[in-house]
Amino acid sequence: MTSQASAPLIPLVLWPRELLEASPEIAALAFAHSLHRYAKRLNPEKAKRFHLRARGTCAGCGYTLVGLPVEATNMVRCPECGAETEVDSSLGELVADEAGRMRFKPLPPRKSWWQRVMTPCRRRVLKRSAIACAVLIFGVLPASWGGYEVFLINQAAQAAKGRPGVEGMIALMESHQPKGLNPNAPNAAELLGEAGDLLEQIKQSVERRGFQSSSGKTVYGDLTLVYSISRPFGEPDDLEVQLLGIAGGLEILQKSEEAGLFSQLDEVAKSRRVVEPINQAGEELLTSMMMSGSSERNFARLCAARMHLAQIHGDEDEFINAFEASLATVRVAAHRPTLLGGLVAAAMEMTTYERLQNLLATNPSEACLIGLEAAMARQSERPPVTMVIDGERLAVLDAFGWFFSEPGRVRLGRYSEEVRIFSRRGILEMRPLGTYSENVAAIDEIFTEFHKAAEHDPSERPAVDETLYEKHNLALIKLSVPAISKSVQSFDQATMTRRGARVCLALARYRAAHGGYPPSLTSLEPTYLTAMPHDPWSGKPFGYRRIDPASDEFGRGYLLYTVGADMKDDGGVEAGYRFSALTSTGAVAATMVNGQKTGADFVINTPVPGPSLETINEARAVQGGPVPMVR
Known about the structure:
By secondary structure, this protein is mainly alpha-helical. 52% of the residues lie in helices and 5% in strands. A three-stranded antiparallel sheet has the order 7-8-11, with helices on one face. Strands 1-2 form a two-stranded antiparallel sheet. Strands 3-4 form a two-stranded antiparallel sheet. Helix 12 (294-313) packs parallel to helix 14 (339-360) and helix 14 (339-360) runs parallel beside helix 22 (484-514). The longest helix is centred in the first third of the chain and has 42 residues, at 120-161. It is elongated and about 140 Å long.
């Protein structure tokens, strides 16, 4: 991006560095100058003069003729061989001695070294150069540097004034609270933060102690292992290590219930107001916003473990409570006005609905299904996706305002030490820092483009200019502004999962009432769905077809699917990695069906099994004693 007319002059102290970076161009100019000088030697007139000066020797014998007397016929005779050489007076070859006699001297008289070096032309050049250097040092340099300092001071004041700060972020969150809500109502974010500190203490107390396997390895408790078939980080995939990890997770659950955390989550679910408290830990807002968010992730794992245990034990009431508590933590995370908060909420929401799909595969009672729908309705108050994009923009603007508010941070442009601290090799070397105004204009254009895109489903989304980052060729823009397109893609997946869950609950209620699934989704309206949710990628109802449970590995009676990023209905065929159908390039989801290459869809009602009841009981036994089942 070229500098605008209002941009300051480059400080003169940077000129040597600029010259070093331009060394190839300087070398090319020097080579061209050398060629020019060599070409001048090939000038015919120059060559002629050089040849005439060589006439100071006899052409016959090579005897020197310099200083010999010249006859009246302008001829000089060689004393050695008698050969005569004509003298050309027009070339200055005749010189009179003290007695007035003409002698042959084709070469000019020898000058002193100072006369040879300091020619009249060079003396004129040196005089002019000295005057120019004096003007540059005592006039241009102070004036340009002083003007640049004035610009930096004014830019710093503008940057400090343009910082949104904590107040701007709070105002954004307040603008997305439910209408008519009392500002003094209980704040779900604060309640969850208080409970999160206690949960972290419980987790650390269990993890610090650890469990010893028979081979002497220390295994730490992990809530993820309670509901997900995986292995602890860095540990071999053997049964004993798995069981000890599950046992530690069960202990965390037990202590959490004893500490009253489950009741605190119920209070969070009842609190409609969500305003994230911001404790500014650094000079700029972005650092503070990045430090928050661990409470929601911890409680999401806690609720997922609760839901899995409730499912395998057949406790529908506990599943509903854990399900709503999980959605409440998702709602709190979704109100955090940063892309990180939105991404955390999206990941937590997909995990929550995975647990729901596992429950629906067990054919729960109609009362349970109605309770789950009611829980979803109560936790549906959430801001639009565009809020996190707007919040991220405020955080980035605040960070840039903080950076440019101190002239010393940007005085040397991209060569400033503070810029190099944040640089990655090969990124900032060839990119200018730009002015504060240029960076703000780039931030506004980038975020405005993606704000417009996030307002629509993928099926209706306007094309986004993916060259925006390259268009604004500024160092900190490339380094600090996140890749928003990937985040929007994750938000699309969470939206699809949420809408699909509503349809799956309606299908389960239809089956509970009629003993089977409907022939099409239109049968769900208006009894089970007042309005049919649409597939974000097709803009139409989700794909649906009934299947034989006996032929399905999960015993499903239907497939509910989205066409995915390729926006092509492939009949619910999934790829090996099912989430590849949701990536921005639908081609990566290609799979083989009956020997034919085809596209792939994403099936929403695919269960994600967790540890069985037998495995959970084995974990309790390995721990050394029974751990009470959480409700």
